[in-house]
Amino acid sequence: MNSAPPPPKPPAVLPFLIIAYALGGLLATDTYLPSMPLLADEFATTNKDVQFTLSAYFAGITIANLFYGPLSDRYGRRPILLLGGVAFLVATFVCALAISIEMLTLGRFAQGAAVCSLTVTSRATIRELYDDAKTTRLNAYVAMAEGLAPAIGPIIGAEILLLLGWRWNFYLVAAMAGLALVGLFFALPESNTQPNPYALRPGPMARIYGRLLMTRDFIGPVGASGLIFGGLMLYITAAPFLLIDEMGLTPRQFSQTQAAVVLTYIIGLIGTSRLIIRIGPKPLLNLGLVLVTLGGLGMLGMALAGFTGFWGFVAPFAFYTLGIGVAMAPMLTWAMSANRAATGSVAALLGTVTMACAFLGSHAAIWIYNGETLPIAIAIAGISCAAVTVYGVSRLRPRKGRE
Question: Which domain holds residue 243?
């Protein structure tokens, strides 16, 4: 069999365009968070139905992720990313024009199903175009930009809500993502230089996914990152209602609180990008998981001690998000190296597991939220301990050789 031709040299602007598109896509989640408590009145529905619009977004990502990987392995990264981007723009306009909670929920599901075309193809593209050190640094930079979305998204969303109304949040997302998509149309190279004609066959797909789920190099980092991300989504789903409805924050104050919490995530990512070459990924990964656990257990301890107000809820979670920032890029690089012959499928399954955990975390918030801090604290503490356990078990024996 002939060896695959070398991938093309990526243009210098490519990471910036990927970051810009990712930022636009992720703002679809974060700009409308301050509006969520108001949407129940807008559509004459319940808070749980509004919270489910966020869960629907993650459900769309979870289901669609499995297909984008094999599709990009078969037809290439470029066409899948661009076509998915067009679908994302259409879904965003559906959300902006929604006249019922059902239409908004459908639009959110379609947004999630479309936007993950970027997640899968960009991770695979970066892995194929750059070496290990550069990949980790780019993953950190991409994650840093993604971290800006939950930091600035609620701030932007709160101001747009006050000035123009919640629908303009989605118009802004469409404008940002659309401009980045045009740039990617001209700059994105095809990194998949050896398409797999069998990638879409059910048998090979099932075998690849089955092998990955039995590989410690994959399930260790993916299981841990998925659980951590699920805890993050649980917090994000419950926080607008707990902080605004129960603690009396205004939408603007909530957005500022959200930005402060996410700032710790960005600090963690900056630290990782600067230290990764000097000390390597494993110490950073270990440190990140320690911080996540301290944050989760700290929130539980504060709640049990009766500190159930603003600082008892928000301050410990800042440690949790700092830990995510430190650990996320090394975990992604580790997972994406599990099977270099099927990078698209690896990225797809990584996204599916992560988003399935995000969906479960977001959906759990709907059912356990009762207007008090303690149920949320118990869940986040349990999730952080489970993530450390999954990671620890994956390191008990020597990892299987990479395929």
Answer: 14-187+211-394
